[in-house]
């Protein structure tokens, strides 16, 4: 048995360098100086008698063994965090630190309404939020950067547990007068695919919108934009196209002060399911279930 073992701090430095690929940024993320982080990594390499990182002036390159050890270190750190989670789960519900990622097509429309209620009901909960696309959020969940994710289903997020909060209907938004506004809803067959503006890959709303329309030619002809719903709405308001928006964005006032009309999509699957997901088997599962209940009731 080894006399000395790596410390959690050394493993944290290694994972930070792997995530950021730069000593300065890794040190900043670890709240230490660059020299402290570098010294900690050298101590780790000396301790286990292997080179983990090739250092040059311009590039930080992990060795093949360094890559494997960094991945293992990430799992060890996650297990260590779960020790604390187990203790918290045995105490008061929804207390302590919790890191939640939220996708961009939910965060600005749902969080302002629900966060005050969470603070009021659970003042001992410190909810740290991160807004990022669905793929990055799910990756962060599995590597331990996040404890839970607020996202829209369906989406393949890996081996997770989840609780559906509510259904969020999809609407077609268009410049007033461009389509018949007297109709109660718009059929996907009536959408001009050459005018459709959608978020680019990485945003699950795009996939939900395409699935709702169920027209293969739309994927080929629609314009995919790497931007936010707010920006797309401005483009629609200036007559540059039409788009598909979630109902929660409309209720939050996304179309206020515009000349845009929004009508429900008249399709059976023109809906996304808003859900809270977490790692399967997490010791804080009861906390996540309670949080999901609070989020659902806040609608």
Automatic annotation (TrEMBL):
Record CDD domains: PBP2_OxyR
Domain of life: Bacteria
Entry-linked PROSITE patterns: HTH_LYSR
GO CC list: protein-DNA complex
Keywords, ordered alphabetically: DNA-binding, Transcription, Transcription regulation
InterPro entries membership: LysR_HTH_N, LysR_subst-bd, WH-like_DNA-bd_sf, WH_DNA-bd_sf
Keyword Transcription among record annotations: yes
A GO MF label: DNA binding
Gene3D superfamilies the UniProt entry points to: Periplasmic binding protein-like II, Winged helix-like DNA-binding domain superfamily/Winged helix DNA-binding domain
Keyword flag Transcription: yes
Occurrences of domain HTH lysR-type (ranges): 6-63
Similarity comment: Belongs to the LysR transcriptional regulatory family.
Listed name of the protein: Hydrogen peroxide-inducible genes activator
Organism the protein comes from: Sphingomonas ginsenosidivorax
Lineage: Bacteria, Pseudomonadati, Pseudomonadota, Alphaproteobacteria, Sphingomonadales
């Amino acid at each position: 048995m080894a006399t000395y073992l790596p410390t959690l701090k050394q493993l944290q430095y290694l994972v930070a360098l792997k995530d950021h690929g730069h000593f300065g940024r890794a040190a900043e993320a670890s709240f230490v100086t660059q020299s402290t982080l570098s010294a900690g990594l050298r101590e780790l390499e000396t301790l286990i008698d292997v080179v983990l990182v090739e250092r040059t002036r311009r590039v930080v390159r992990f060795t093949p063994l360094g890559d494997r050890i960094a991945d293992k270190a990430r799992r060890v750190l996650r297990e260590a965090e779960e020790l604390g989670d187990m203790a918290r789960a045995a105490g008061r519900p929804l207390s302590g630190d919790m890191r939640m990622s939220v996708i961009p097509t939910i965060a600005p429309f749902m969080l302002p309404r629900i966060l005050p209620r969470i603070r009021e009901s659970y003042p001992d909960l410190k909810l740290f939020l991160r807004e990022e696309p669905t793929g990055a959020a799910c990756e962060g969940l599995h590597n331990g950067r996040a404890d839970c994710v607020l996202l829209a289903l369906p989406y393949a997020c890996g081996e997770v547990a989840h609780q559906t909060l509510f259904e969020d209907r999809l609407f077609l938004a268009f410049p007033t007068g461009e389509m018949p506004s007297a109709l109660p809803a718009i059929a996907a067959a009536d959408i001009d695919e050459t005018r459709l503006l959608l978020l680019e890959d990485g945003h699950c709303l795009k996939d939900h919108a395409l699935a709702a329309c169920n027209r293969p030619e739309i994927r080929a002809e629609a314009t995919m934009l790497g931007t936010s719903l707010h920006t797309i709405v401005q483009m629609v308001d200036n007559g540059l196209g039409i788009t598909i928006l979630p109902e929660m964005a409309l209720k939050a006032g996304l179309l206020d002060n515009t000349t845009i009309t929004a009508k429900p999509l008249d399709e059976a699957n023109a809906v996304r399911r808003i859900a809270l997901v977490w790692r399967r088997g997490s010791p804080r599962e009861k906390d996540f279930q309670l949080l999901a209940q609070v989020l659902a009731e806040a609608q």
